[in-house]
Write a structure and sequence with these properties.
This protein is α/β, with parallel strands linked by helices and 349 residues long. It has 12 helices and 12 strands. It has 2 domains: 30 residues, no CATH class; 311 residues, Alpha-Beta Barrel (TIM Barrel).
Length: 349
């Protein structure tokens, strides 16, 4: 089925010149669908970069064998997810694959990236591979650091060369996140486009995604549309910021409606949601991540569904586990979020 963009839709309805004469900045956003969309994918990692947040699953993931990584990918696929976004191929100046850039993490699985991509090939999962973290992920200056920039580009070439044969290597993800306040900075646009330029050469068919924050303070006006036009990406997955307590569920629909309008005008990048399914055990950013109750998660899904093309979550790992999983990573409450979500999904038929 061919999807019409907003302008084609108006013309098809016979509104023609009258509709096109409307100031696009004042036009109504076009909901993609009023039904609640299921979770299409999740972020993924070998070790959570914010150590205190990942205390409930980092140790388990460090001990995973290749067989357990296979089991985890199978579990995720069976839960109905189609996409996984690998956050990082390096962290804290150590890599998760064989490279001269950094020494290697000491994990039970010698090549976890090969293990998950091979599993994804079998279970039909599409992976976005992250170009981070090369340098200090906590620093705003990492995107302009020439040393980090060189290492990021080197990693792209190595990753495409070593792992590019996998059918599951679907796309790239640029993980040094931007705060849209209320626009992207020129430095961030340059960071994105520099990586994308090389990525397009290495894997011309690969999709490129970013996941900025500041969703609640974006100004989706003419300037923002021009910035969308200037960004060399295929997908923008905006963080809903509910888990980090910057946004309330009752507010997010309005944020995404404005973004829908901007993306309809630009007609370049797809609009996805990066929906936070966690809550903090204690102080925000300084305590463990815990699974949110499913009723909150469902309300988040309902709020963004009319405006986004797909819903991704941050994140399955740690927050969801199939009961009895042989690749369990997270706290015991993660089985309840998994079971509640699966029950809802199955009730939809």
């Amino acid at each position: 089925m061919i999807e019409l963009n907003r302008r084609e839709f108006l013309v098809a309805l016979g509104l023609g010149a009258t509709a096109l004469a409307i100031n696009p900045a004042e036009a109504e956003a076009s909901p993609t669908n009023t039904a609640i969309k299921p979770i299409a994918g999740s972020w993924f990692e070998f070790q959570h970069h914010a150590t205190v947040e990942g205390v409930d699953w980092n140790p388990a993931c460090a001990r995973f064998t290749a067989a357990q990584w296979d089991a985890k990918i199978k579990e995720i696929a069976e839960a109905g997810l189609e996409y996984l976004v690998l956050m990082a191929t390096a962290a804290y100046y150590r890599s998760f694959y064989d490279t001269k850039i950094y020494p290697k993490w000491e994990l039970a699985c010698a090549d976890p990236l090969e293990a998950v991509l091979a599993a994804a090939d079998k279970y039909k999962i599409k992976f976005f591979v992250g170009a981070g973290f090369y340098g200090n992920w906590q620093s705003d200056k990492v995107i302009t650091d020439p040393v980090a920039a060189k290492k990021r580009l080197q990693s792209l070439e190595e990753l495409a060369n070593i792992y590019g044969h996998h059918p599951s290597f679907y796309g790239w993800y640029w993980p040094d996140e931007a705060c849209i306040n209320p626009y992207y900075t020129p430095e961030f646009i340059n960071y994105v486009n520099t990586l994308s330029r090389l990525a397009r050469q290495l894997k011309p068919k690969a999709q490129i995604m970013i996941a900025p924050y500041g969703t609640r303070i974006v100004t989706p006006d003419d300037k923002y549309v021009r910035q969308l036009d200037a960004l060399d990406v295929d997908i923008v997955a905006y963080q809903d910021e509910v888990g980090v307590q910057k946004s309330k569920v009752t507010e997010t629909s309005e944020f995404y409606e404005g973004l829908r309008k901007a993306h309809d005008r630009s007609q370049k990048a797809k609009l996805w949601a990066d929906m936070e399914i966690f809550e903090f055990e204690g102080e925000v950013y300084n305590s463990a991540l815990m699974p949110a109750p499913f009723d909150r998660v469902l309300s988040q899904m309902e709020a963004v569904s009319p405006w986004v093309d797909k819903i991704l979550v941050y994140q399955y790992q740690g927050m969801m586990n199939k009961p009895g999983s042989t690749a369990f990573a997270g706290c015991p409450a993660s089985t309840k979020l998994y079971s509640d979500y699966r029950s809802w999904l199955e009730s939809k038929g």
